[in-house]
Amino acid sequence: MIELAGLSKRYGDKVAVDRLTFAVRPGIVTGFLGPNGAGKSTTMRMILGLDHPSAGDVRIDGRHYAQLKDPLTYIGALLDAKAVHGGRSAYNHLLCLAQSNGIPKRRVAEVLDTVGLTTVARKKAKGFSLGMGQRLGIAAALLGDPRILMFDEPVNGLDPEGIHWIRNLMKSLAAQGRTVFVSSHLMSEMALTADHLVVIGQGRLLADTSMPDFIRQNSRSYVRIRSPQRERLLDTLHESGITVVEAGGGVLEVDGGKAEQIGELAARHGVVLHELSPQQASLEEAFMQLTAEAVEYHAHADPGLGPQDRSAGWKGRAR
Ligand SMILES: Nc1ncnc2c1ncn2[C@@H]1O[C@H](COP(=O)(O)OP(=O)(O)OP(=O)(O)O)[C@@H](O)[C@H]1O
Ligand SMILES: [Mg+2]
């Protein structure tokens, strides 16, 4: 278990991490989400004792990282896949880590096999592709067979097979009762991988909740309706006090889960429906809604993108 209590980090005037209090529990995959610059990597560095907190405390199974004997056997982490001596082979890189943490030599070959790097084990790390580097970083995290694993953007640079592999790897590590803490920008990927979510924005905690609760609390559920008798349907809904939004392309949207009520109303008034479908916003939409206020680095929509600018379209609907 990883426990943070009022954990804060300040760089000059900049508050990168602001009084974070939460626990990362064993047996599940906990996703760590937040916009660019939210403080995810800084938080992870403080967990590993690589950055000193300005205030607050963080403990790994009740102890500070520096108090752990052979730390790789307690917590394995992938923070920066490029943090490897380029002139060393994958095998020697892992062997150095193993020897400094009292880990038997045979584990090196085992983890190289687990991550699929056995055939390039003797090649120098500087020649590795982005995805191979990520795999080597994951091998280092697994080396000490630790009960706690932490990955900062692990799928960065992995191909679809690699993404699929790491998703299953994280789930299986959690199923073995380990603590798995993983940050990612890929919301669709998190939706498939994480059981629990911790969301931060500008260093502050925005949510600490299960995945289904997060989507329920932060996303919009609505009913999508299409009818060839649009005007009549609008009148009928209006008379019943139901608020309708015109979403363009002949689509009407009604907030909430009122599909049955709308269907029965349409039948009673003899209005033909071509579509009546309950919709739930995706995790990506829920995330964007929650963090909209906390995004520091906004891109400006390319004027050439026009109606295909999906984020602008989504924001328009959500407000
Ligand atoms: N060594 C440092 N010195 C000064 N400021 C820093 C330092 N490290 C991080 N920061 C600042 O702290 C904030 C949080 O950065 P951090 O890298 O933790 O964010 P992040 O959530 O990991 O972002 P990303 O999603 O882009 O990886 C940023 O504003 C960053 O500029
Ligand atoms: Mg980061």
From TrEMBL:
UniProt keyword annotations, A-Z: ATP-binding, Nucleotide-binding, Transport
Molecular function GO terms recorded: ATP binding; ATP hydrolysis activity
InterPro entries, per database record: AAA+_ATPase, ABC_transporter-like_ATP-bd, P-loop_NTPase
KW Transport (keyword) present: yes
A Pfam family this chain is assigned to: ABC_tran
Domain ABC transporter: 2-227
Positions of the UniProt region annotated as Disordered: 300-319
Record-stated family: Belongs to the ABC transporter superfamily.
Protein name, UniProt field: Multidrug ABC transporter ATP-binding protein
